[in-house]
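Progress against Task 2.4 (sequence-to-structure conversion) is shown through the following example record, which the project officer requested during the mid-term review.
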Amino acid sequence: MAIEFTKYHGLGNDFILIDNRLSSTPLLSPKQAQTLCDRHFGIGADGVIFVLPGVNGTDYSMRIFNSDGSEPEMCGNGIRCLAAFLAELEGDFRHKYRIHTLAGTIVPELMPDGQVKVDMGIPLLLAGEIPTTLCPAGEKVINRPLEVAGKVWEVTCVSMGNPHCVTFVEDVAAIPLETIGPLFEHHPVFPQRTNTEFIQTVRRDYLKMRVWERGAGVTLACGTGACASVVAGVLTGRCDRAATVELPGGCLRIEWSNADRRVYMTGPAKKVFQGKYQLS
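Structure tokens generated for the chain above:
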């Protein structure tokens, strides 16, 4: 069986996009998606994204399997890639989409300059919503101590439909991400595991970020993580409500609107190539 695919990336966070509009069930199993994501024996990607029929009045639905076969609620860079993929499938029929995800309805919009602006919704801030047991369920998790690898870190937790643990550091380049990232992800205070962002404040409107993604490991960018980091920066008084977030793969513009409390993310989505993959 051959599966048609298109490869996209958002700031180096790369995805295999599959047209799944004729079925409400993903065409591949998590194990098959894992095979496709293998960078030596497959196509290579951080995840596989399926475009499915919409539900409850949305235009389309999004499902994603990470490179380890797990399924996250949402992916910020991925949904920008999905919007660009839909414009290609539709022949540029429209520029704004209502996408059903496991994190709720997300609205990406293709801008005239080729960037994609995404209404990421209202961040969830209570411990029970994230979820984490770092503090009582009805409290916000702001500058809470968390011991990892024999060191106490001050962390702020945010859900953008998926869990994030944000910690501010003096120098993101000095963080041993490959070794410490898994310890954060699998820490027992995060019952559904967590994405982890290490943030350096360059200016109040400019942050540098490195990320360990739940289910994918070290990636060049994480859209939901950039959103969560600006929210955490505002909550801790470290940054403005609108800021540029510099990731290893490039920059995203993030705004946590004071008017409607929603987070808006703007960044690129680039097509890499398309082809057919022979499933064994």
